[in-house]
Design a protein that fits this description.
- The chain folds into 2 domains: about 5-60 and about 365-410, Roll (Urease, subunit C, domain 1), CATH 2.30.40.10; about 60-330, Metal-dependent hydrolases (TIM Barrel, Alpha-Beta Barrel), CATH 3.20.20.140.
- Helices cover about 30% and strands about 20% of the residues.
- The chain is built from 14 helices and 17 strands.
- The strands form 4 sheets. Strands 1, 2, 3, 4, 5, 15, 16 and 17 form an 8-stranded mixed β-sheet that branches. A 4-stranded parallel β-sheet has the order 11-12-13-14. It has a 3-stranded parallel β-sheet with strand order 6-7-8.
- A hairpin with a 2-residue loop joins strand 16 (about 395-400) and strand 17 (about 405-410).
- The chain is globular and about 70 Å long.
């Protein structure tokens, strides 16, 4: 079995949000077998000298849509699966090269994309998928234009896409969740409140009854999974958390009382600040309606405040971006945006340890420890002071390993 030794590294201890200089990491095959500050000799091993640079666990983005090659979600849903998959392969490859060795897909990707990555057919991050998002009629993932009155519009949609599995009533919700479980979901996505890009739902409204929300969570937990909920308003967030969801996606409008409910129930916040910055610059050019632009205006300046409120109360904050179309390239900009309200080490922790714990995968990803996957980055810069180098991954990432395999090596 191939043995690799990385020495002279400033290891990021993601659990405690600190750097540990003079660290050596020993890898056998796909896994880490030793982490030590003692000198190690390994005559038969491949030796990599990190030169005192930062050594990070592979980064985790906890809110992506790898099939979102376009902002036209309805048009995407009508494309052939083969074409969507080909476009997704490019998006996945670029995410990996930006340092993200794992991503949590927040709706759209399917088990086929996941298996293609696992087999090495597509280069990309490890994929944790939600399948189709669960939406009520008229909810955030019900993308039918206002004049369409039948569900049949999307019956023949591609198997990949961001339109929702429409479900009304406890029975339909249970069936919709069970269908996502059947088709390989790692987590279940619920639309618990209004959204920006959907045509007919108020942003500050609530979606699904409490009984429906609880049914969705119950079905996810029955399959040893968990539920993530799209929600912005305090009322929508509070109801979702009280129903048992594990993470709130976006959450821009939360107040302190809502954050305390999240803390009480052990929920995570996954803000997606970069998508609002991107859409604020380009929403009108993309042809968004006045109603959608008004909703964007309502939330774009509130995301930073939501993070401040959450961390003050003690709600764990994970890294997420939620970018679509050509805006995927702004993924690493999230690191700098977060620094407006979080210290650099805390932002890094959100993209490693915190995200891994949210996904219940901390024994495998998100930290450099014995038994974990050898997903590793050697990066230039004093990241404890400033994460700006990560916004230029083509220059700052000197080594990228995924499962012990060198994807990028610029140390030579």
């Amino acid at each position: 079995m191939q043995r690799t030794l990385i020495r002279n590294a400033r290891l990021f201890d993601s659990e405690h949000a600190r750097f540990v200089p003079g660290t050596t990491v020993v890898i056998e095959g796909e896994r880490i077998v030793e982490v030590t500050q003692e000198r190690r000799e390994a005559p038969a091993a491949a030796v990599i000298d990190a030169g005192g640079r930062a050594l990070l666990p592979g980064l985790i983005d906890a809110h992506v849509h790898v099939v979102a090659a376009s902002h036209d979600l309805v048009g995407l849903a009508m494309q052939p699966v083969s074409l969507v998959g080909a476009e997704a392969s490019r998006i996945m490859r670029d995410m990996l090269h930006r340092g993200f060795t794992t991503v949590r897909d927040a709706a759209g990707a399917d088990q086929g994309l996941q298996e293609a990555q696992q087999r090495g057919l597509y280069a990309g991050p490890r994929l944790f998928i939600a399948g189709f998002p669960i939406s009520q009629t008229g909810g955030h993932a019900d993308m039918r234009p206002r004049g369409v009155r039948t569900r049949e519009l999307f019956c023949a949609c591609a198997g990949l896409g961001l339109v929702g599995a429409i479900a009304d009533g406890v029975g339909e919700v249970r069936r919709a969740v069970r269908e996502q479980v059947r088709t390989g979901a790692n987590q279940v996505k619920i639309m618990a409140g209004g959204g920006i890009s959907s045509p007919s739902d108020p942003l500050e409204g609530t979606q699904f009854s409490l009984e429906e929300l609880r049914a969705a969570v119950e079905e996810a937990e029955a399959a040893n999974l968990y539920a993530m909920a799209h929600a912005y308003s305090p009322r929508a967030v509070t109801r979702a958390v009280q129903a048992g969801v594990r993470s709130i996606e976006h959450g821009n409008l939360i107040d302190e009382a809502t954050a305390r409910v999240m803390k009480e129930h052990g929920a995570y916040l996954v803000p997606t600040l970069s998508t609002y910055a991107a859409l604020a610059a380009e929403g009108e050019r993309l042809g968004w309606s006045h109603a959608m632009l008004d909703k964007l205006e309502m939330v774009k300046g509130r995301g930073i405040e939501a993070v401040r409120i959450a961390r003050a109360v003690g709600v764990p904050v994970a890294f997420g971006t939620d970018l679509l179309g050509h805006m995927h390239g702004q993924q690493n900009g999230e690191f700098v945006i977060r620094q407006q309200v979080q210290p650099p080490l805390e932002v890094l922790q959100g993209a490693t340890w915190t995200a891994a714990r949210l996904m219940r995968q901390e024994s495998h990803i998100g930290r450099i420890a014995v038994g974990a996957w050898a997903d590793l980055l050697v990066v230039d810069g004093e990241l404890e002071r400033d994460l700006a180098p990560l916004t230029q991954p083509g220059q700052s990432i000197r080594l990228l390993m995924q499962g012990g395999r060198r994807v990028i090596d610029r140390l030579g």
